[in-house]
Amino acid sequence: MNIDFLHDATAMTDQIVAWRRDLHQHPELAFQETRTASIVAQELQTLGLEVQSGVGQTGVVGILGGISDGPTVLLRFDMDALPITEENETEYVSKNKGVMHACGHDGHTAIGLAVAHLLNRYRGRLHGQVKLIFQPAEEIAQGAQAMIEDGVLDDPVPDVALGLHLWNAIPVGQVGITRGTMMAGADIFEITIQGKGGHGAAPHQTRDPLLAAAHVVNALQSVVSRNIDPLDSAVLSVTSLNAGTAFNVIPPAAHLKGTLRTYKHSVRTVAASRLVEIVEGISHALGCESKLDITPLTPPLVNDPEVTTLVSQAIAPYIEPNALLPDLRTMGAEDMAIFLDRIPGCFILVGSANDRRNLNYPHHHPRFDFDEAALPLGAAILASAVAAYVIPG
Ligand SMILES: [Zn+2]
Ligand SMILES: [Zn+2]
Fold first, then answer.
1. Which domains does the chain show, CATH number per domain?
2. Ligand 2 geometric centre to CA of 170 (Å)
């Protein structure tokens, strides 16, 4: 007997939406997801899962065991919100001022609870086990690492890792499932240019770090346009530049920050070394000293080809033929990549925008919201992907 997870999930829609709206009203920042975690733990315990809290500070793990041995499937959901003041006027608007679920992680957590319910119904047919992990601190790219350091990938060791992100770049009903690299590896860089301050009317007595910073910003634009193979993908954005406060004072130092995004290790190496050469060379030429720190944030997110093929087949019945997008990629980053760096798996982008209802603001926008029809679909997709591994047809 084939299971119709979409039928089951659709019947649960009111409950899934209620979970999501409650979480949306009570958003919590990275590593502070205590209310969210206790709701998750309570719900999983009620279902009879083996539950562990406080994994990676505020993370929760639930294990759904089957009737016999078999593969262990890891399902990952993230729970954290962002330091953004919500500008929506819905009945479920954030009650926690200055904090907002502007990325859809409220939806991911609700989907996770729904998937636990959906799979629990078929426990008697489950060969293997499902390890549901509810992760903190995705937005600062520290939660996955924290859970791994607390042993989330040990005992049982997952054979495959699956996850999803609601995705407002595509309409509800469409689903992106891409073989190979799908999201970029991200680095943060921070630059200090040290000069010698002085009077704005006597620049010859100073070594102007602000001028050097301006040249550095310009020259960094040459890295992607002149050093990277045009057939490769890379982004280098300077996103912060601070120097000086007064109109008549040349400041002693300038501070810059930005991000580097790449799909390939070799491209990252070229971009990082050009970054070093440009910052050092220009600062030196203009009489300043420089300090540059490059901090790796996440590796590129790579979907295993075999897992992606199997999952694509499993979810195909729930998606219109032309709505399965095999080439959706972004230069955004995700710390799911840290799990997928260790365990073969697949990360799915579930369309959640609805232009007619104005539910199409981008992620991290103060008016971000999504079409909740994506919630049961997302739950059905993940449940059927898990079933492909642990519930024989
Ligand atoms: Zn986000
Ligand atoms: Zn996100």
1. 5-182+300-390 (3.40.630.10), 185-298 (3.30.70.360)
2. 15
